[in-house]
Write a structure and sequence with these properties.
Number of helices: 8
Radius of gyration: 21 Å
Bound molecules: flavin-adenine dinucleotide
Strand content: 25-35%
CATH topology of the largest domain: FAD/NAD(P)-binding domain
CATH architecture of the largest domain: 3-Layer(bba) Sandwich
Structural class: alpha+beta
Helix content: 25-40%
Distance between the termini: 37 Å
Order of helices and strands: EHEHEEEHEEHEEEHEEEEEEEEHEEEHH
Amino acid sequence: MTPKKTVDYLIIGQGLAGSLLGWRLIQQHHTVLIVDPCLKQTASRTAAGLINPITGKRLVKAPNTENQLLTARKLYKQLADFFGRPFFYEKDQIRLFQSEDEINQWNKRKSQADYRPFLAKRFSTSEKHGLKMAPLGGFEQKQCGYLDTVALLDHLRHFFLDQQCFINQHMDLDDLKISPAFIEWQGHLAKKVIFCDGHHLRHNKWFSWLPLQPVQGEILTLQSEQPVFDEIVQFGNWLLPLSNGTLKLGASWQWQPLDEKPNEKTSAELLARFYQHFPKFNSTQLLDVNVGIRPGTRDKHPFLGTHPTFSQLTVFNGFGSKGSLLIPWYSNCFLRHLTEAETLPQTVDIHRYKNDYFTG
Ligand SMILES: Cc1cc2nc3c(=O)[nH]c(=O)nc-3n(C[C@H](O)[C@H](O)[C@H](O)COP(=O)(O)OP(=O)(O)OC[C@H]3O[C@@H](n4cnc5c(N)ncnc54)[C@H](O)[C@@H]3O)c2cc1C
């Protein structure tokens, strides 16, 4: 049993959000207690961890992507040095054109200076072994890669256990007692609570007013007898080759039901699209199906900030389908907000929703 503790921050959830924020707080000599039930299937453990700076039909790079990439690389390198193994793998990506419009868009982006570091040459599919001939071909993308989220979360969990600041338990939020000076939970005391509870936020009695838009997704793990590609391939869905010869294929988007159960129809559709583009891989073996719920938000920006009534309750959530890129950057912003009272960017501060959604 963990001895009763008095800490600066009680963190609820050890997904990528709670883990990276907890790590940063500890590095800055703040005390934390992290509570998580260690489920096998969560968004962070299901995710492929892809980082892809240029996305969508219009090939858009979000503002601040360059800084977010630098921060993510730096943090994952710091963690790799600390644990003595890599977690983030740089990997080139190829993307197949789905329409003439996308080709026009690519031509436009290629001429924009700030897109050039991310876009490489166009290719025809005959140059790429294993791909079905496609008339439109595709283009190469730079500065992509993937985070091995399961390995990272496992290493961080051991680290938190060694620091005696981790409890394997689902927290019943009714057990949290709020007083002006402290929050109390099962005899532990904290100055502030940080909810990093992913899609469970929609049932959180203090923060369910925030417009979360959770989306379930499925990812298949495949074993291939054929030698696999080196690159990540985007073809409407995506294919991620891993070093052990397995492939990840994803991901589906399902708004309802949010039951975290694999769906045979969804898996069959993913496989059918895969075989259509990669006919040579039609003897792959399905090893595993993983499901998770992305904590998306209405305006596609995360939820950071403090409860309008209870200043001891804070939230760090809503990273949608871009946690690997966004959480390193925003955990830094939130750390400075918590510890140095630095103002949060308006685009992510939950107060943007206060007038329209918070009813007290
Ligand atoms: C199918 C799929 C594919 C994805 N692909 C990518 C991708 O390629 N690239 C990318 O960057 N992102 C991807 N994502 C998104 C990514 O997973 C998320 O952005 C990120 O993992 C969210 O992390 P989180 O910590 O906020 O949430 P979660 O990982 O859901 O973590 C929340 C944690 O809180 C715990 N918790 C909840 N309530 C309580 C409670 N009451 N008490 C204690 N613990 C509690 C949960 O058990 C869980 O461990 C994908 C997600 C899915 C589902």
